[in-house]
Amino acid sequence: MDPRAEERIVLESIYTSEEINITDDYKIQFRLLALWVGTPGTLESFVVNITWPLDYPYIPPIIDFNEFCNLNMPRVLQESLLSELNEIASQNVGESHTFTLIEHLRDNFETYAQQIRDAKKRPKERAFESVVAEDMEAKKGKKDTALTKAQKRRQINRFDSDGNLPRGWNWVDVIKHLRQTGVQGDSTS
């Protein structure tokens, strides 16, 4: 019997169909879900893809995190996980080791979830710090320019005694406007 088929049977007996999915061409999709979250794509969950080549287990499997629901994982964490898993796979060449890879992920899941949470907090903190810095720069750089006496006089004359603009200050003089644009004749003949 093919060693891949044997390992497939073993993995399907150990893990539920919600955790693992193995296709006929030996592509494994394992979902690591936090018990308190429970759905892929949420903050503390991710999916690992493991593909068994024809000569598996005598050559290491192909491991990746290329799934839409892994967008919440920082690239640095994905790369460190890939290096860890590839190292474990290279140490266990010659024997079935997908179970070992999955258990390594499950054992260290709390650490990975904490790293994901920390990475999600960092951009918010950076954004807050940058907004505060921009406000400080705006306050420092914003200086009131001194108005000349003529500018002050025009500003005072523009407003009435209550500080409001007079009625009709933004009205359009219709006759003046029509003189400038020209009257367009009716083409109804």
TrEMBL record:
Coiled coil: none annotated. It comes from the Eukaryota. It holds the Pfam family RWD. InterPro entries: RWD_dom, RWDD4, UBQ-conjugating_enzyme/RWD. Residues 6-112 form the RWD domain. PANTHER family: RWD DOMAIN-CONTAINING PROTEIN 4. This is RWD domain-containing protein. It comes from Hymenolepis diminuta (Rat tapeworm).
